Amino acid sequence: MRLSYLLVSMLLVFSLTMYDVRSMGMVTPDLEASEVICHTTDTGERYFSYLVRNVGNETAPAGSYQVFFKVNGKLISFERTTDTLQPGKSILYTSEHKFYPNQKKRVLKYNLIINTKDADRDNNKKTGEIWLDSN
After folding, report:
1. Whole-number Å distance between alpha carbons of 26 and 29
2. Which stretch of DSSP H or E encloses residue 93?
3. C-alpha radius of gyration, the chain, whole number
4. Rounded Cα–Cα distance for residues 93 and 71 (Å)
5. What SS3 state is found at 72?
């Protein structure tokens, strides 16, 4: 009886050590659309920066994700060739597209999207809006 218990225990330990921990969800990158910042130039134009953070516990390899930024439904910036992102680290992207203060649409609705396969797909998007001053 003790021998069979010992054999079962050894097989269980062996099979768990052979099991890929990635498939158990214990080790994986988790990219988060963290923050969107709207900047204003001296002439009143607006442009955006956006922060992507790896909140997981594994490095996101270069090219394993893409970053898209839309304003009012229009793609204004994208990163298809992305860098390695270590756990706990962030990358700040800045769009070169500028919005003029006297444009027709007074609200800028943004959507930051990270296209990746990671631990939590719910945090791969961030939406919001910025109202332009009527100066």
Report:
1. 10
2. strand 90-94
3. 22
4. 15
5. coil
